[in-house]
Design goal:
The structure holds 2 protein chains of 2 kinds. By secondary structure, chain A is mainly alpha-helical. Chain A is 83% helix and 0% strand. In chain A, helix 1 crosses helix 6, helix 1 crosses helix 8 and helix 4 packs across helix 7. Chain A is elongated, with a radius of gyration of 21 Å. By secondary structure, chain B is α/β, with parallel strands linked by helices. Chain B has a 4-stranded antiparallel beta sheet with strand order 2-1-4-5, covered by helices on one side. Chain B has a 4-stranded parallel beta sheet with strand order 3-8-7-6. In chain B, helix 3 runs parallel beside helix 6. The longest helix of chain B has 15 residues. The radius of gyration of chain B is 17 Å and the shape is globular. The chains are: A mainly alpha, B alpha/beta. Chains A and B meet through helix 2, helix 4 and helix 5 of A and helix 3 of B.
């Protein structure tokens, strides 16, 4: 219990440090580290893994429409409510956890175990500035971009596939999509993607910087903890968002178009 | 511990078993042999952090480090640099990135001056700069790693340069090459204090 509370406190302290030290991105080595992380998290993930993730979205809409015997309206609503709002950010977060969360936590833990973090401190380089800020900022940006990428692919795939399952043309579906699309969908997934990226990066950096001991055996333990807790955090944020948004919709504070 | 004028380092350790005192006059070259790895790590860490453990007393440049404000401590730390296993190279950065990292982060000295110094020093030591600076630490041998760390130390232009375990892990030929380090340091930083730190040989 005490350990869990200590982790929460550590995570919050790391989050606060990130928020107050964003200006460190102006320093050349920090900016370079940020760009490197954007490349590894965003650009390299935008090929095979993301294509497979977007295929998941297409599959979900195909099965749902087939089971529910959907028409044009329902097909588009499923695209917006399920694929755009939920599957997109979740798939991006999953890709980020599996690809970058593991690498990031292992890299930081290795630096800690091998004494490189101590060397950085002796060189007068702040660990938050050099290790945490660029990684958290880069993962947030990369998760957001990956989310949009997956959403576009999944929605396009869904629109292209639906005419084979329901009695509607691609043009009809596209027109209906633009009619039903509301800015709230965009903001909802943007905020969620940024929060997912933030939670994953902070969790991985925290565990990397705080291994259970300073031996090589600690590295796999760090990775396991970082990945498990990142996934739990993402699910918790997703649940909180769903409750908040659908709760507000339920109480009529926002007029739902869906 | 009485404050002595003109000392760059004044260190006293009294842990009940043995007493260690190190006093190094500013601007000199001194050698310290400490009894064992733990004592050495403790001494070097105290100097690099400008902060000592309980039971130790340390003065840097005549200023006691106990009870210093964080900013004053940071100012003292900037005057000390080390070539030591404690301050290793970053494994995911190449030699140039390692050497220029503190300068790029702190914004001083300018990177073109760092590059000039690196090229000049490497040429003096007979090392091809372009190839050497592009290599990762894992591709370097023991001498080359010390050379990269020495380059980083020179860039910092410290008033107190710690050379910790300088010839450890080196062959005879490499030891003779590493003696050039002191000459280079004296030429480039004539006012700096050089402190060699080693462990006493076990009987």
């Amino acid at each position: 219990m005490v350990r869990a509370l200590r982790r929460v406190e550590g995570g919050m302290r790391l989050s606060a440090a990130f928020a107050t030290r964003l200006g460190a991105l102006r320093r050349p080595p920090v900016l370079e580290s940020f760009l490197r992380q954007v490349y590894f998290t965003g650009v390299t993930a935008a090929t095979g893994v993301v294509l497979r993730a977007s295929a998941l979205g297409v599959l979900i809409i195909a099965i749902t429409m087939d089971v529910l015997d959907a028409d044009v309206d329902l097909a588009v609503k499923i695209l917006l409510a399920v694929v755009f709002r939920e599957i997109g950010p979740l798939a991006a977060a999953t890709v980020v956890i599996l690809r970058s969360g593991t690498a990031m936590s292992a890299e930081v833990a290795m630096m800690r175990v091998s004494g490189q973090t101590r060397a950085l401190r002796h060189l007068g380089i702040d660990l938050y500035d050099y290790l945490v800020v660029p990684r958290v900022a880069a993962v947030m940006l990369a998760t957001l971009v990956l989310t949009f990428y997956i959403q576009c692919l999944a929605v396009l795939g869904g629109l292209a596939l639906s005419p084979f399952i329901i009695d509607a043309s691609f043009t009809e579906l596209t027109e209906r999509l633009f009619q039903l699309f509301a800015p709230v969908d965009f903001f909802y997934s943007t905020v969620k993607a940024l929060l997912f990226g933030f939670a994953v990066a902070v969790c991985c950096c925290y565990h990397g910087l705080n291994p259970p001991d300073l031996t090589l055996n600690a590295v796999p333990k760090v990775v396991t903890r970082a990945v498990t807790q990142s996934a739990m955090l993402v699910l918790a944020i997703n649940a909180a968002f769903a409750y908040l948004v659908f709760g507000i919709l339920f109480f009529g504070l926002v007029t739902a178009k869906l | 511990m009485k404050s002595e004028a003109g000392l760059a380092v004044s260190y006293l350790r009294t842990d009940g078993i043995a007493e260690i005192y190190v006093g190094v006059p500013a601007g000199t070259v001194a050698r310290v042999h400490l009894p064992g790895e733990a004592a050495r790590a403790r001494f070097v860490t105290a100097l690099l952090k400008a902060k000592c453990e309980s039971g130790d007393a340390l003065e840097l440049f005549g200023e006691p480090v106990a009870g210093l404000a964080p900013q004053a401590r940071a100012r003292l730390r900037r005057r000390v640099a080390a070539l030591s296993p404690i301050v290793g190279l970053m494994t995911n950065l190449n030699v140039w990135e390692n050497v220029s990292l503190p300068a790029a982060y702190h914004g001083t000295p300018p990177l073109d001056r760092v590059a000039g110094l690196a090229v000049e020093l490497l040429a003096d030591l007979g090392v091809e700069p372009r190839t050497f600076l592009a290599r990762l630490p894992e591709e370097l041998d023991a001498f080359e790693r010390k050379l990269a760390a020495f380059l980083r130390l020179l860039v910092a232009r410290p008033e107190l340069a710690l050379l910790d375990g300088l010839d450890e892990g080196l062959g005879r030929a490499e030891r003779s090459r590493i003696e050039r380090f002191e000459t280079e340091l004296r030429e480039r930083l004539p006012l700096a204090t050089l402190l060699y730190v080693d462990c006493k040989e076990e009987d």
